[in-house]
Amino acid sequence: MTDQRTDRDDDSGLMEPRFLRPGESTLSDHDVFPEHEELPQTAYQIVHDEIMLDGNARLNLATFVGTWMNDESKKLVVDAADKNMVDKDEYPRTAAIEEHCWKMLAGLWNAPDPKHTIGTSTIGSSEGAMLGGLALKRRWQQARRAAGKSTEQPNLVMSSAVQVCWEKFCNYFEVEMRLVPISEEHPCLDGSQVADYVDEHTIGVVAIMGVTYTGAYEPVQEIAEALDALQAETGLDVPIHVDGASGGMVAPFIQPDIVWDFRLERVHSINTSGHKYGLVYPGVGWVVWRSRDLLPDDLIFEVSYLGGSMPTLALNFSRPGAPILLQYFMFLRLGREGYRAVQQDSQDVAKYLSAGIAALGPFELWNDGSDIPVFAWRLKDADSHNWTLYDLQDRLRMKGWLVPAYPMPDDLADVTVQRIVVRNGLTMDLADELLDDIRTATEYLEQLQTPMPDTGNRAAFHH
């Protein structure tokens, strides 16, 4: 009778007990490059066992990044694992598919002439945002030089609740970051605030369709109208870049009446994340310009392919082609109708959860998931409780759920919120299980007679 713990490791016919093979039955220094080779089965087992210690991706309600795709998608990943997106001459069909995708997005976002604008895939929405910011800076510099004015001290205006990629952009590309603080009265950037932060050195304004902290949409049309009024008064013509990392793939399908995209002439560029509500595995993002003239020529490199040339622009060079093929697959697979159904289902789950949490008693919703399927809440009368949202976060982690608690940005830094991101794969049944676990954890915490001990390990959640 064969030992069930054994495997045939080669063609010799010899059997070796699994977990007793060299490398699996001994300790090793994981930070030191190994001296000797291992059997492929051994190396696989070591890596496989290590990642078992990660959390369950589908229970990670902190991340916006997709954690579920169907079996056909997984086959495509394997089929295209060796494709390097930068080799457009070697992989011309993959290059053509990339172009199909951003032209589809240009149409989805109501560009005046989708087939003759320009865009590109990126490694994620952050790279797309940086390319949009670079185009704003370069066009501002060119206009200033043409007018005989200084190109020193460019600034970019945005909410204090922006994602950290914008802080990186301003740091890396030497642009002053002008943050408009959010408050209880103004929980996001809006038209009443923006003009106070704009001057002749402003390269643009960033508007967010789906604030990372809460999931709320910033009113892009109001911001554009405020900038229209400012131009009429001062002559300053300030463009908008829309950070649609999440909302760019939600609003067109379930809130088509919201005017936030290229229907507004002042919106020059939009970025989104394919691996968020674009519904594919990481990593792919997109950036598209309203029209070809809004992207300066000196940011574009021409690459020869199919007997002609193809424009290319990116901060990264070599990068995988598989996620781009996955994006095209999802566009073909779902279409507008399918995306509408998936995003509506996610929003239904988010609103079910937010209503259930609001009904528990100790909590007050910051928003309810009516924009992107993301919502946050805070603890009512926080000082009157013997526990905090960090304690609730810890209790839920014991059940496998990652539901982050964190402070709001600077002017609201004394406010702690907790947030749930609903993605494709969080079913209504799973949501009900989560709500039950939140209810049980809350009941336990509410019975505490003394405060929970403070471990002092309350690092802010990183967006």
Question: Which key phrases capture this entry?
Answer:
aromatic-L-amino-acid decarboxylase activity, 10 helices, Aspartate Aminotransferase, domain 2, Glutamate decarboxylase, four-stranded antiparallel sheet, single chain, seven-stranded mixed sheet, Aspartate Aminotransferase, domain 1, lyase, 463 residues, disordered N terminus
Describe this structure in words.
The chain has 463 residues and is an alpha/beta fold. The protein has two domains: 75-331, Type I PLP-dependent aspartate aminotransferase-like (Major domain) (Aspartate Aminotransferase, domain 2); 344-446, Aspartate Aminotransferase, domain 1. The protein has helices at 40-51, 71-79, 92-108, 125-146, 164-172, 220-234, 251-254, 322-358, 389-398, 428-446, and strands spanning 6-8, 15-17, 118-122, 155-159, 176-180, 202-208, 240-243, 267-273, 285-289, 301-305, 308-312, 363-365, 374-379, 405-407, 416-421. A seven-stranded mixed beta sheet has the order 3-9-8-7-6-4-5, with helices on both faces. α2 packs antiparallel against α8, α3 runs parallel beside α8 and α9 (389-398) crosses α10 (428-446). The longest helix is centred in the last third of the chain and has 37 residues, at 322-358. It is globular, with a radius of gyration of 25 Å. The relative contact order is 0.13. Mean pLDDT is 90; it is low at 1-6. Keywords: Decarboxylase, Lyase, Pyridoxal phosphate. Its EC number is 4.1.1.15.
